[in-house]
Amino acid sequence: MLLDNYDIIVVGGGHAGCEAASSAARLGSQVLLITISIPMIARMSCNPAMGGIAKGQIIREIDALGGFTGIVTDHTMIQYRMLNRSKGPAMWSPRAQSDRVQFGLKWLEVLNGIPNLHIWQDMVDDVIVKENKVIGVRTKIAGDVFAKAVIITSGTFLNGKIHIGSNNFAGGRLGESSADSLTSSLFHAGIKSERLKTGTPVRVDKRSVDIQSMTEQKGDDNPGKFSFTDTPPLVDQLSCYLCYTNEMVHDILRIGFENSPLYTGRIKGTGPRYCPSIEDKIERFAGRDRHQLFIEPDGRNSNELYINGFSSSLPIEIQLKALRSIPGFEQARITQPGYAIEYDYFSPTQLHFTLESKIILNLYFAGQVNGTTGYEEAAAQGLIAGINAHQKINNDGDLVLKRSEAYIGVLIDDLVTKGTLEPYRMFTSRAEFRILLRQDNADQRLTPIGHKIGLADNARIRRLEFKTSMMEEMERILSENSVLPTDINPFLERVGTSNISHKQKYLNLILRPQIKLTELLQYDSFLNEKFSNINSNTKVFAEAVESLEILIKYGGYLEKEREIADKITRLENINIPEDVDYMAFSAMSMEAREKLLKAKPTNIGQASRISGITPSDISVLLVFLGR
Ligand SMILES: Cc1cc2nc3c(=O)[nH]c(=O)nc-3n(C[C@H](O)[C@H](O)[C@H](O)COP(=O)(O)OP(=O)(O)OC[C@H]3O[C@@H](n4cnc5c(N)ncnc54)[C@H](O)[C@@H]3O)c2cc1C
Q1: Beta strands per DSSP E along 4-105
Q2: Which residues line ligand 1 (CB under 6 A)?
Q3: Domain spans of the chain?
Q4: Coil/strand/helix, residue 93
Q5: 180 CA to middle of ligand 1, Å?
Q6: What is the pLDDT of residues 344-403, one digit of tens each?
Q7: Among the four residues 21, 232, 265, 293, which has the most C-beta atoms within 10 Å?
Q8: What is the pTM of this model?
C-alpha cells in the first residue's frame, strides 16, 4: 500500500480542512490531509478578507480555543478595521483585508510545522464503510487508505459546475477540477445530498483603474488583531476604495439577462441571500439607481483588485461592458471573470452536534459541504470536527459548545437542529445572547475549554489569568477611589455630560455612556498613576481596559442575559432518550410528532428550537420525561 494507516483522514485542504487537520494532529492523532492541490491549500475562493460582522467574533473564538485562523489572519492582513464601533460592544466586529497568496502560504507553513500531520495531493473518490462505520477512503492515485475516522471538508467541489453566461463546465473553483465521485459514494452509504450555488465578481488589473477618483477607505489608526497570542502588529496598511454602479451599468447588465444562467433556469441551486449577485440586486431592488461597490486590493504584491458587490454569472462581455461604465473603470482590464458555481451539499440535520454523521459512525462533515458559506463558518466547523474526531477515537467525550457560550455553538445548533435550504452565514442577530458573545471576551469564554481539551497551550491560559487579574485590580481601583467635583467637572463638560456636585467613585462615572475609560485615564493624573502600576505597557493592558469598561457599562444587560442563558442551560441538561415513540403522543399535533421524529432532538432545549414546535409540545415532552 502506498500510504500508511492513519488515525484520521481529512478530505480537503480548505479553511475547514486546515483547522480540522491541525487540531486533530496537535491533539496527538496521526493525520493525513488529502487535497486535490497542495498549492491551493486555504485558498480564498472569493473575497480576500477575513472577519466582519459576527464572522470576526467567530475567528476570535477559534483562536481562543487554540485554532490557527486568527494567527494566520494576523500574519497576512493588509488592513484592519473594527466594524460597528459606533454601536454597542455586542456588535463590534473585527475585519481584515487579507493578502490572498500569503494567507494560503502561511497556512501551509503552519501545517508543515506539525510533525504528525502529513499532506497528500490526490482526489478522494469514495469513502470505505464497513458495518456502518467509516474505515478509510479510496483515492484516484493512492487507492485505499485506512483510518479510524474521516472528516469530509470538500467545499464547493462536489459535482461543481461553473456558469459564465450560457457557458458552463465542471469545476470546483475557477481553474480547479471538480470532485465528481464522492457524492454518489456517500449517497450509497445512505447520506442525502442537495444543490446550492454561490458566485464571485470579476478581478481587475489595478493599473487599468483610476483608483484616485474613488473614495478611499483607510484602515483603523491603531489597528487591532484577531489572535490573543503575541502575533505581530500590522504596519503599513493598504486602503480599500468605494464607488457606485449607475443606471447605465444596470441597463447594460439587463441586456445580458437573456443569457443569464440564473434567469434562464440553468442554475437550479439556491444562492446566498445576503451575498446576492449584481443581477439579483438590480432585479430585487429595481427602484435603486445605484449600488455601492468596495474595491479591495488582493495583496501587497498583487496587481489584482477584487470588485466586492459586483458578483455576476452574466456573459463575460456584458460584465466587462457594465464595469467600464463605472467612473474610474473606463479602461478596466479584467484578469478573471465573475462566475457562479453550483455544488452538492449534505443537509446538516444528518449530523450530531459533534458534526459526526448520524448515519455512518466516525464520519464527520465540516464547512461548505454542510450548507454554510464563508471561510470563518467553515474554519469553525473544521476545528470542532477535528477535536471531536480525535476525542471519539480516544474515548474522550464530546465537545459541544452551547448557544450561550459561542457563536460556534449557535452555528452548529442552527445547522443540526434546523438544517438549511440556502447558504447559511452567521449574523449577530442569529444569537440570542449577543452581549455575552463579544469579540473581546472570547478568551474568557473559551480558552479554559480549549486548554482542558489540550489545544490551547499553557501560555494562552497564563495570558488569560494575567488579563483577568489585571481587570480585577482595575475594578478595585475604580471602586475604592473617588474624585472631587473641582477635579473632574472640566472633563465632564468637555465630553458632554452633567457635572457632579459631590465627590464620586470613579466606577460610577464609568457607567455614563459619554465617559470612555481610556480618555479618563489620559485626563486624570491620579487615576493614571494608579493604573500605570499594573503593567500598563503590556499588550494585555489595553484589552483588559476595554473588557472591564464593557463589564461596568453593560453589567445590567449582562446579568439578565446570563440569567436567561442559565435557565436555557437547565433545559439543555434534560436529555431525551433516542428511542422515544413520538407518534404515541396524542396530545401533540401530528406536525409536531413528525418533526420531532425526524429531528430526534437530544435534549429539551434543542427540541424547543425546532421550527413548528410549540411550548405546549414541550410541556407534553416534559410530562413524559417526568419533569
Ligand atoms: C465562486 C465562489 C464564490 C464564493 N462567494 C462567497 C461569498 O460571497 N461569501 C462567502 O462568505 N463565501 C463565499 N464563497 C465560499 C467560501 O469560499 C467557502 O465558504 C469557504 O471556502 C469554504 O471552506 P471549505 O473549507 O468548506 O471549502 P473550500 O475552501 O472550498 O475547500 C475545499 C477543499 O477541498 C478539496 N477537495 C474537494 N473535494 C475533494 C476530494 N474529493 N478529494 C480531495 N480534496 C478535495 C479542494 O481541493 C479544496 O482544497 C464562495 C466560494 C466560491 C467557490
Answers
A1: 6-11, 31-35, 49-51, 77-83, 93-98
A2: 11-17, 34-37, 40, 45-46, 123-124, 153-157, 172-173, 179, 182, 198-200, 275, 341, 367-368, 373-375, 378, 425
A3: 6-154+345-453, 203-338, 458-559, 574-624
A4: strand
A5: 15
A6: 999 999 999 999 999 999 999 999 999 999 999 999 999 999 999 999 999 999 999 999
A7: 21
A8: 0.94
